[in-house]
Amino acid sequence: xxxxxxxxxxxxxxxxxxxxxxxxxxxxxxxxxxxxxxxxxxxxxxxxxxxxxxxxxxxxxxxxxxxxxxxxxxxxxxxxxxxxxxxxxxxxxxxxxxxxxxxxxxxxxxxxxxxxxxxxxxxxxxxxxxxxxxxxxxxxxxxxxxxxxxxxxxxxxxxxxxxxxxxxxxxxxxxxxxxxxxxxxxxxxxxxxxxxxxxxxxxxxxxxxxxxxxxxxxxxxxxxxxxxxxxxxxxxxxxxxxxxxxxxxxxxxxxxxxxxxxxxxxxxxxxxxxxxxxxxxxxxxxxxxxxxxxxxxxxxxxxxxxxxxxxxxxxxxxxxxxxxxxxxxxxxxxxxxxxxxxxxxxxxxxxxxxxxxxxxxxxxxxxxxxxxxxxxxxxxxxxxxxxxxxxxxxxxxxxxxxxxxxxxxxxxxxxxxxxxxxxxxxxxxxxxxxxxxxxxxxxxxxxxxxxxxxxxxxxxxxxxxxxxxxxxxxxxxxxxxxxxxxxxxxxxxxxxxxxxxxxxxxxxxxxxxxxxxxxxxxxxxxxxxxxxxxxxxxxxxxxxxxxxxxxxxxxxxxxxxxxxxxxxxxxxx
Amino acid sequence: xxxxxxxxxxxxxxxxxxxxxxxxxxxxxxxxxxxxxxxxxxxxxxxxxxxxxxxxxxxxxxxxxxxxxxxxxxxxxxxxxxxxxxxxxxxxxxxxxxxxxxxxxxxxxxxxxxxxxxxxxxxxxxxxxxxxxxxxxxxxxxxxxxxxxxxxxxxxxxxxxxxxxxxxxxxxxxxxxxxxxxxxxxxxxxxxxxxxxxxxxxxxxxxxxxxxxxxxxxxxxxxxxxxxxxxxxxxxxxxxxxxxxxxxxxxxxxxxxxxxxxxxxxxxxxxxxxxxxxxxxxxxxxxxxxxxxxxxxxxxxxxxxxxxxxxxxxxxxxxxxxxxxxxxxxxxxxxxxxxxxxxxxxxxxxxxxxxxxxxxxxxxxxxxxxxxxxxxxxxxxxxxxxxxxxxxxxxxxxxxxxxxxxxxxxxxxxxxxxxxxxxxxxxxx
Lengths: 573, 429
Hints:
Chain A folds into three domains: 2-112, Ubiquitin-like (UB roll) (Roll), CATH 3.10.20; 117-228, Alpha-Beta Plaits (2-Layer Sandwich), CATH 3.30.70.20; 301-454 and 511-563, Rossmann fold. Chain A is 25% helix and 18% strand. Chain A contains 17 helices and 27 strands. In chain A, the strands form seven sheets. In chain A, strands 18-17-24-23-22-19-20-21 form an eight-stranded mixed beta sheet, with helices on both faces. In chain A, strands 1, 2, 3, 6, 7 and 8 form a six-stranded mixed beta sheet that branches. The longest helix of chain A has 16 residues, at 101-116. In chain A, 48% of the residues are buried. The model of chain A has no long low-confidence stretch (mean pLDDT 94). Chain B has three domains: 5-235, 3-Layer(aba) Sandwich (Rossmann fold); 245-329, Ubiquitin-like (UB roll) (Roll), CATH 3.10.20.600; 334-425, NADH-ubiquinone oxidoreductase 51kDa subunit, iron-sulphur binding domain (de novo design (two linked rop proteins)), CATH 1.20.1440. Helices cover 41% and strands 12% of the residues of chain B. The relative contact order of chain B is 0.12. The interface between A and B is medium-sized, with 36 and 30 residues.
């Protein structure tokens, strides 16, 4: 076990490590901009200066040389070292800003340099509030500036690609974005152009930054130089609450954070999860924020004379139970897009009613995956549906079953929109649970509005068999941030006063989780299903289905998801 | 100094008409040392050649002055993969124009030296990196290398010795930074000329991740000479700690500027007043930049006894650099000179490291303000502060090269600057 001394404290390490990463791993602070743990180390910002020294080793005595006090003689490196590029070696002595005036001075000097050509537009900059430059300037920067000249002017509001906007003046040339396109997404779409203090990142002439992972550069940009087209100027960071969740647009199920204000999801950013997505996520998953907010089914709908009419929940429940009771043969279609809890209760409901076995149609587009964070599977929970025992079926077989049935019940899956069924297959005999309006709801006789991943607790099992869960980020008409203990709370929930006029009742959708509606329906029919909460449902799943044994929300939170399958194991129906 | 410069017979650029032609070069003993080494590989093992160069005391002529043989010995053992020499002909520093004379008048001495070095380090390819502005000289080198290929000095199984190597010319694209060895490698690889973080050093991971040695053109041109006269005799030429013939590129206010070859250690005053025929118009020397614009300038009244070798110049407070000497007469305004130098480094900073990217611009803007007459005494202290914030804080030495002239011009010629800065009114109160 090798040792290293940081600010007179002894630490041990066994794996080769860079000094900066080691310091950060200990929970200590050292300012830095260009370093990112998943990228190569260019050591160009020069912010993470430390003093470093090595003990003098006497080869003849095979021992460290000692001074008069019996302390090791340290030979100090003549210059300040960048901790990011410095390999930790046994016995190394490091002084950071905590103990070294020289380091404090060096860090302050670099910040002064960075700021001389950096526009001081924090009040209108999207990065403010989550800006490493802003934070580190407060902590380590100079009090003022001695720069009394005109700043360098560079291009502003450059639409680099469909989703990313560049303000070159704010750029501090850390090259994180360039390295991301070279090392992670491997599109090589960005490079630094110009020279010296005119430097900024840019695409090759005539090319656009349409990398399917382009928005990760916005996340790793340590200033507000790169901003997202769909989020810039929408909200200040401190007005939003962030909620850990997962990407429900692809079978990979990247860990994400949902950023909400006034019950609207305003942006989606990746959440570090080494077992799934590392630091990154695809742009397509971020675009889903719009479908979480807009075009929602906001009241139960019944079709009368070909027109969808909003109706009461009571009427919806009665219509549902009547139709189910009256039907002789029901096509019960579960969904790879719905949570494990919903699929489970859905399957159980029709088993208990003695009306047929649930099936589901995987949503796979062969060849659409990229071997990185996009799989061919477009649905977040096909594996979950399989593990629950829903029978996997395909378009033709389902169409035959639908034709033979006198009632079709679809759990939140746009079967018409994605080409599995035709609208005329469903006409006149369909009930669907849906969170958004789509081609299937347009064909259904009864539409029951249900929550989406931003509104309910739900377990989703990704293509690799990893179970992860969502946490409600938005209130519905039937939930309350202060009463729903499953809901995440933001800074303002905890510290806001009534003068923080930030909570509005706007944007609440009138919907329920499908399992809740089905529980009520079961009560109505007397088929004996009763669940108080999603937790109840999950507990029953864990108790009754071997593949889910031992699963709980706490474990999923603490372990960043639970691997339900052994490596390389796949589940087939 | 008892040395009589008038009778010195040049060794690097001998006075032989048409020497750039390979036939003339071969008639005058060209490629003999190379063939000697290849022909007797039991005596001249690669290690023996390296040791010969090491003991000759030859130090790099590109500015840093590192022992050349020692640098060669850092190359790891061959593993069957490619190994490279990158010959640095990107001389771009103001005041430096010496390698050009080798390209023009004696290209084959460089080619022969590079080939001997290639043999000593088992190099598979030599890249000759020449600054893009040297269009004509690039063509000359391409012709010289083609001639050497035709004569069988380069290629496969050279002269039946079993040794093979290749040589290519690569043109720079107009960036001073590409003369820095690691950004030169990036440039050769087709990338943006950004210096690399060291370690790893080029001998471990250089071009395309393979062992690489970077040598200056003039350095390699010295190698055939070492083998011809022997390390012992070579080490006796010129200054003891920095031996060998040296190309002095002298420019500025002298009557006969140009590139002159003399042994190292020539007294500066001899070079100015005798070799170059004195200062124009018989004026006094105000300042001398001894080794390219990045080296600290010396005052005209500091020059007595100062010689052009690393020890003497260090004692005097400067550096030998590339021995590209700029002489300035008594009417020169050092504020103008320094502003121009600061502009150069601002223009040439690659912009990778923060202190250099931002510091070079700040230096230039502040100097321009002083030059306009808007400066205050506080600006002089600020300039020195900026230098402190830049020196030793970056990946490569460009920040130092930009800061040193500012620091030493201001401290050594402070009267020029004080004459230009306004004294704030309240200072008199």
